[in-house]
Amino acid sequence: MTEAPAQRIVEDHFSALQQARAEVNRVIVDKAEVVDFAFTALLAGGHLLIEDLPGVGKTTLAHAMSISLGGSWQRIQFTNDMLPADIVGVSVFHRDEASFEFRPGPVFANVVLADEINRATPRTQSALLEAMAEGQVTVDGQTHSLPQPFFVIATQNPLDMVGTYPLPDSQLDRFLLRTRIGYPSQAEERRLLTEPDRRTYLADLKPSLNPEAVLALADQAARLHVSEPVLDYIQALIAATRSHAAIRVGLSPRAGLALIRTARAHAFLNRSDFCTPESVKTVFPGLAAHRLQVQPESGLSSEDIIDEILSATAVP
């Protein structure tokens, strides 16, 4: 008798998740796989890095996600003159009371859009390290917890553009997944040219979820069963990154744990009751490419090597 109401609540949350997914896909045309990556990162408790040329919809995707998820959200436009205090907040001294008051920065939100994150200097980029890893920030020796869930969607311009600073490895590792949007197909671009501006869709977008529902869904996703053959497949992929001749540094054990967590979330999003090899294979490029350190003389990109590893590794 006590399980039926709880089960209905879970089903309601999942229906709301699918509604949010559909609404974001209505705004971001022809990019269902990118939208799925965004929701997968959210359910896995991670963060998403979108790297692409200006004007392909990076900020629109982040904005649509933030609205559909409900809760609080903030947009931070990164520039080269920003300071860490502009992100995490600052302690203000009150002379009359002889005390400090902490004034939270824009990072104190459920969803944070870090727009053009690589236009800020490495010092400012590092202000997000503790927040993304621990869900908290420390200012003047005082630790302040961030709202939960805490989800960062960062956009990044290609590194060959003027005024960009490459993210250090420690910062890249904080992003669970990295993806690109790319140009739309010819048919979908015609829709963009003839239909109302996508921003009009954002104005009509309503929250489908709330923070409590997101946390409950993430908990359910983390419970999906991972079979021994799937674990063998995950270990084989990780081992292949460590033994490949063109890779200087392969995936760490922490990346392996992240791969399991992400594959579970992807399988859950696609209505599976267990973690599937297909989900592992789907999320592996987005999880691994920005974590690998490739030998420069190899002439290969991390994406090329990942494709090679996926082709050479048997799927259970």
How does this model look, in words?
- With 316 residues, the chain is an alpha/beta fold.
- It folds into two domains: 3-223, Rossmann fold; 224-316, Helicase, Ruva Protein, domain 3, CATH 1.10.8.
- It has 14 helices and eleven strands.
- It has helices at 3-27, 32-43, 58-68, 85-88, 122-125, 129-134, 169-172, 186-194, 198-204, 211-222, 228-243, 253-269, 277-288, 302-312, and strands at residues 48-51, 73-77, 89-94, 99-104, 111-115, 136-139, 142-145, 151-156, 177-179, 247-249, 293-294.
- The strands form four sheets. It has a five-stranded parallel sheet.
- A hairpin with a 2-residue loop joins strand 6 and strand 7 (142-145).
- Helix 2 packs across helix 12 and helix 12 (253-269) packs across helix 13.
- The radius of gyration is 20 Å and the shape is globular.
- The two termini are 39 Å apart.
